[in-house]
Design a protein that fits this description.
- With 465 residues, the protein is an alpha/beta fold.
- The protein is built from 15 helices and 13 strands.
- The strands form two sheets. The chain has an eleven-stranded mixed β-sheet with strand order 1-3-2-4-6-5-12-13-9-7-8, sandwiched between helices.
- The relative contact order is 0.14.
């Protein structure tokens, strides 16, 4: 079989039945990374030796007829804010480059290793995850594989680009205000921001602990679900992921959207859209025969509150670094963090109070609806270096406003799958499928139906310019 750009579940099945060795997977993946990554800049560090060591163990277990994990032989990589034993956890920063190597792996990496997956390294990201563009002032921009003059999105830009370029079939990223959903939409792949607290963040460099999620990128919905099943579960090392035992999600995919009540988010989510993004929502709605719309209250206020919480928590987290190493920050990141460090505590308290109200108000909307459809970004990927964009006749800064539609959802921790909407000759856009808390299975089921209807991830290895 041709290994390059195969879905994770196909690779795992071939390794399980012996038609493909994990060592062969390593060789093919290494060749793909060496050939294609220099033009994309997805990887910050590659761990070929570790991947080979893990592959040898998988092949030895298969020869000994020992049970193999569900992701045996599957290559993956992680955003460079996850601890990888022996590597320095950069979190996209110059300052962290002076830190000692991590003494152990993040919880989610340990779980993937236990499932037989092969770690190929760390991926480029926006500094300290405060970015929607995929442009890193220290390590360079990660380029969109569909057109390398354009952004990958951020802050998990390396993760999305690595999957979209066919370098690895799986990657992990983080999402505080949209950092999984924005790059998955702009690079034309599937991304999952799980329910807040469903996946452990232990061993993950924080951004804003009240809002931080981790989650997978993949080329297929089945791969997202299989990865979720491996990653989820309690972890005492993360206080918000300590007790609840979630049900498996992959077993539910075959049900698709049958019996799922769907609606389109109105008002806020229909303003400020480029025609391509608006058309993407309509294509998804038409494919699923959805005409109903629902109203989420006070969305603009929710976005403002999310900004406040992000700035204030992150500013406090980085206060010592701001005092001693201010010149070593990306200036755009530094100014936001300084603003948060100087903000009054009363603003943060008010934002948290509003968050509780908003969470209850949105929960009431889900009394009558199972999944809500909304745009993921207001437009397709801007060009690298582009500072402003025009939406509905208004000129807006690119960097914050790529998260226009993702921030209000992160704010209350709901699960979201980003579905790619790819059109020939155009850059991809994406659509959010939003479900109630702990019903990640619902948005995955609807995404699986869209996948069967032709809404599929588009690997860009050959198409990128």
């Amino acid at each position: 079989m041709t290994i390059l750009a195969q879905p994770a579940h196909v690779i795992a099945e071939a390794v399980h039945d012996g038609t493909l060795s994990a060592v062969d997977v390593v060789a093919a993946t290494q060749a793909a990374i060496e050939r294609n990554d220099p033009a994309i800049n997805a990887f910050s560090e590659v761990t070929y030796e570790r991947a080979l060591s893990e592959a040898l163990r998988v092949d030895a277990a298969r020869r000994a007829r020992e049970p193999l994990g569900p992701l045996a032989g599957v290559p993956y990589a992680v955003k460079n804010l996850f601890d990888i034993e022996g590597l320095t956890t950069l979190a996209g920063s110059r300052i962290n480059a002076g830190h000692p190597p991590a003494a152990g792996d993040a919880t989610v990496i340990k779980r993937l290793k236990g499932a037989g997956a092969l770690l190929f390294g760390a991926l480029n990201m926006g500094e300290y995850a405060y970015d929607f563009t995929g442009e890193n002032a220290h390590y360079g921009a990660t380029r969109n594989p569909h057109n390398k003059a354009h952004m990958s999105g951020g802050s998990s830009g390396g993760s999305a680009a690595a999957v979209a370029a066919g370098l690895v079939p799986l990657a992990l990223g983080s999402d505080t205000n949209g950092s999984i959903r924005v790059p998955s939409a702009l690079t034309g792949i599937f991304g999952l921001k799980p329910t807040f607290g469903r996946l452990s963040r232990a061993g993950c460099f924080p951004f804003c602990a009240s809002l931080d999620h981790v989650g997978p990128f993949a080329g297929t919905v089945r791969d997202l679900a299989l990865t979720m099943d491996v990653l989820q579960g309690p972890d005492s090392a993360d206080p918000v992921c300590a007790t609840r035992i979630p049900q498996a999600v992959s077993a539910h995919l075959a049900r698709g959207a049958e019996g799922v009540t769907l609606a389109i988010a109105d008002d806020y989510f229909q303003r400020g859209l480029h025609p391509d993004a608006a058309a993407a929502v309509q294509r998804v709605a038409a494919a699923l025969d959805v005409e109903r719309s629902v109203h989420l209250p006070q969305v603009a206020r929710a976005r403002a509150a999310a900004f406040l919480m992000t700035n204030i928590e992150a500013g406090n987290l980085h206060l010592a670094r701001l005092k001693t190493r201010a010149a070593d920050f990306d200036p755009d990141v530094r100014e936001r963090l300084l603003a948060g460090a100087l903000a009054p505590a009363s603003w943060y308290v008010q934002a948290q109070r509003f968050r509780r109200w908003y969470q209850a108000a949105v929960r009431a909307v889900f009394d009558d609806v199972d999944v809500i459809i909304a745009p993921a970004t207001p437009c397709s990927a801007p060009r690298i270096g582009q500072k402003t964009m025009t939406l509905d006749g208004e000129t807006l800064p690119v960097r914050p406003n790529l998260g226009l539609f993702t921030q209000p959802i992160s704010f209350i921790g709901l699960p979201v799958v980003t579905v790619p909407v790819n059109s020939p000759g155009q850059l991809p856009v994406g659509v959010q499928l939003i479900a109630p808390a702990w019903r990640d299975d619902l948005c995955l089921r609807v995404a699986a139906t869209l996948e069967t209807l032709g809404f599929t991830a588009s690997l860009a290895t050959k198409e990128g310019k």
